[in-house]
Specification:
Order of helices and strands: HHHEEHEEEE
Distance between the termini: 53 Å
Shape: globular
Domain Thioesterase: 67-141
Largest sheet: 6 strands, antiparallel
Mean pLDDT: 91
Pfam family, one: 4HBT
Structural class: alpha+beta
Keywords: Hydrolase
Number of strands: 6
InterPro entries: ACOT13, HotDog_dom_sf, PAAI_dom, Thioestr_dom
Number of helices: 4
Radius of gyration: 18 Å
Strand content: 25-35%
GO molecular function: fatty acyl-CoA hydrolase activity
Helix content: 25-40%
Length: 157
């Protein structure tokens, strides 16, 4: 690989990380900030056994430079809603995701209302599997994911 290609990769990542806030201000942001940043505006429309249906009007803060919803925001929604759906199966967990496989099929744009549907496929003693799908209101699939999570018990301490 050429030194030019390596330098281009370095520049791309470092330029994207240019600080918009001074480091002390960034370090002062609470650890739960990221979840709230992604989930703010999300509404739970249906919560039934083994299924959640949520809606979200895509806010401009979740867009990438192409002006559509960032893939990282999509992955975060898969993780957060995918985790929450296990509660509808009676599994209260703080476990870590083991795997997320996401097919990005279409784009969502600012102020577009989307649905996020999660379904539990299986819960075992230690591992659970769910699907999470982001859809436009016309039914077109934005992203389809399989989400596997370690089902660690909540501590009674």
């Amino acid at each position: 690989m050429s030194a030019t290609a390596l330098e281009a990769a370095r520049r791309m990542l470092e330029d994207a990380a240019v600080e918009t806030l001074p480091t002390p201000a960034l370090d002062a942001i609470p650890s739960k900030f990221y979840d709230a940043f992604v989930l703010r505006g999300l509404k739970v429309v249906v919560a039934e056994p083994r299924r959640l249906l949520c809606s979200l009007t895509v806010p401009p803060r979740l867009l990438n430079t192409g002006k559509f919803m960032h893939g990282g925001a999509t992955a975060s929604l898969v993780d957060l809603v995918g985790s929450a759906v296990f509660y509808t199966a009676g599994v209260e967990t703080r476990g870590a995701p083991l795997e997320m496989s996401i097919a990005y099929l279409d784009a969502a744009f600012a102020d577009e209302e989307i649905d996020i549907e999660a379904k539990v496929l299986r819960t075992g003693k230690a591992v659970g599997v769910a699907t999470v799908e982001l859809r436009k209101k016309n039914g077109k699939i934005i992203a389809h994911a399989r989400y596997t999570k370690y089902l660690a018990s909540l501590s009674k301490l």
